[in-house]
Structures are given as structure tokens and as C-alpha cells.
Write a structure and sequence with these properties.
The chain has about 250 residues and is an alpha+beta fold. About 45% of the residues lie in helices and about 15% in strands.
């Protein structure tokens, strides 16, 4: 960071941001011609003068990697263990979203919360999240643990992921998670902000304007076999990255 200059920042913005077409979603009591007038100055300055630089690929590594940062004065370790997930517009994203909900997207109600925190008592919190964009993003399991439980918690997380890789998900658990995903969509559309956010997402990732109508079918089509498949495809043990930070780890 110390080596960055103003010119570096400007070059990044000009090559990767400015030359890409802007997508603006507006929701509320405005007429289309009012919106066009409001953003007219932006249209004149956002013209693409050349092809934008391609986004770099998020490539897989040759083997697992581990890193740990000691932060003086901390008493809790926060860890992230995971790998590279699918891009947002990849067919695997919906099955991965269901799989993530089962694993730890429910927070303490997911498998990680139930096993690592409630049953084993190894973590203050345990969850998982899959983040995706135009390219691949991280699919990670996270937890907050006492230093003496660090290695045990990592091992417990690995075991839960391994179980989700190989063992079929019970049908009732699968249906509960699919129902939650489908049922949460209308809640996201209750505010102007939520509608604008989903409109932008549909346009940015080219999901199709019928996406909201197809969403329930996409989720309901996910099978127990799909869950095993996507977890096997993305959570490869020899590709996993473990990152932790906090006090010194005993031993």
C-alpha cells in the first residue's frame, strides 16, 4: 500500500472502471424523462473510449495454503477456511447457494453452528458464505474461537465440509433450505433500495429480466446430488486456504 501513487489509482479507475458502461437502477416516484435529465451529465463523461482491460482470473493454487497474523491485545482468534466458488452467473451458483445455506448460511442454525459451536463448544460463532461477482469469489467458512481451540475448530469445519461433499443431504433439511431461499426473495423487494439492488444485479450479471419469475424453479430444481457435486467441485481439500488472526496460538 505504501508504494501506491495517485497515478496508480487513476490508471486503475480509468482502465477498469471508467471505460465500462455504467448501470444505474432508479426506483421511486420519478418519471423516466426526469431520470434521464438527472443523469445526463454522467452519460457525457462515461463514454467508453477503448475496450476496458479484462478482469484478472481468480486461479486455483497448486496446493493448500495457511497464513496467520498475530494482533497484539486480542483474545479471540477469527478464522476463515475456504476456497474459490463459482461466478454469480454460473449455473453452479444457485446449487452452491443452497449448499452454503445448509453448511452455515443460517448462522448458528446451519451445520457449522450446530456442530462446531453448539455440540463441540469450540467457537463463539461459526458460519459460511459464498461471495460471487463477474468472476469467481471466495466460498469460506468463518469462526471466532479461543486460541486453545483453533486447530480443533479448523478440523471440525473440515469434517463438516467433507460430510457435505460425500453424504446425501436429508430431504427435509434440503427442502427447508430451499424454502428459506425462495421465501426470503419477496422480503428483499419490500423497499425501493431492495428493488434497485436486484435490478442492478440482474443487469450486471445478465441473469435475464425473467429471473425473478424463474428463481423459485431454479432453487427447487436443486437436488441432494447437486449439493454433493458442487461441494466436491469447489471445496477441494488440496486447494483450501486457511487464514487466521488474533493472539499467539498455543504450541
Amino acid at each position: 500500500m505504501a508504494g501506491f501513487t495517485r497515478d496508480d489509482v487513476r490508471h486503475f479507475f480509468d482502465s477498469l472502471v471508467r471505460r465500462r458502461p455504467a448501470i444505474i437502477s432508479v426506483v421511486g416516484n420519478l418519471r423516466q424523462d426526469d431520470v434521464e435529465k438527472l443523469f445526463a451529465p454522467l452519460w457525457s463523461t462515461n463514454a467508453r473510449t477503448a475496450n476496458p482491460a479484462p478482469l484478472p482470473d481468480c486461479t486455483r493454487r497448486d496446493g493448500p495454503r495457511e497464513t496467520y497474523t498475530v494482533i497484539p491485545g486480542k483474545v479471540q482468534i477469527d478464522l476463515a477456511w475456504g476456497t474459490i466458488g463459482p461466478p454469480r452467473n454460473h449455473p453452479d451458483f444457485v446449487p452452491a447457494s443452497v449448499a452454503n445455506l445448509i453448511l452455515g448460511g443460517f448462522g448458528l442454525m446451519g451445520r457449522l453452528g450446530q456442530k462446531v459451536r453448539e455440540e463441540l463448544g469450540l467457537a463463539y460463532y461459526a458460519a459460511s458464505r459464498v461471495n460471487a461477482g463477474l468472476g469467481a469469489g471466495p466460498w469460506v467458512c468463518v469462526a471466532g474461537v479461543a486460541p486453545e481451540h483453533y486447530r480443533k475448530a479448523v478440523s471440525a469445519i473440515e469434517q463438516e465440509v467433507a460430510k457435505l461433499r460425500e453424504t446425501p443431504v436429508p430431504q427435509d433439511e434440503l427442502e427447508d433450505c430451499k424454502s428459506h431461499l425462495i421465501g426470503s426473495l419477496p422480503l428483499k423487494l419490500e423497499s425501493n433500495e431492495g428493488v434497485a439492488s436486484i435490478m442492478s444485479e440482474i443487469e450486471i450479471y445478465r441473469l435475464g429480466w425473467d429471473y425473478l419469475h424463474r428463481f423459485a424453479d431454479l432453487v427447487n430444481s436443486v437436488t441432494a446430488e447437486d449439493i454433493n457435486r458442487v461441494v466436491r467441485a469447489y471445496f477441494e481439500p488440496d486447494q483450501a486456504i486457511l487464514a487466521g488472526s488474533g493472539p499467539e496460538v498455543p504450541g
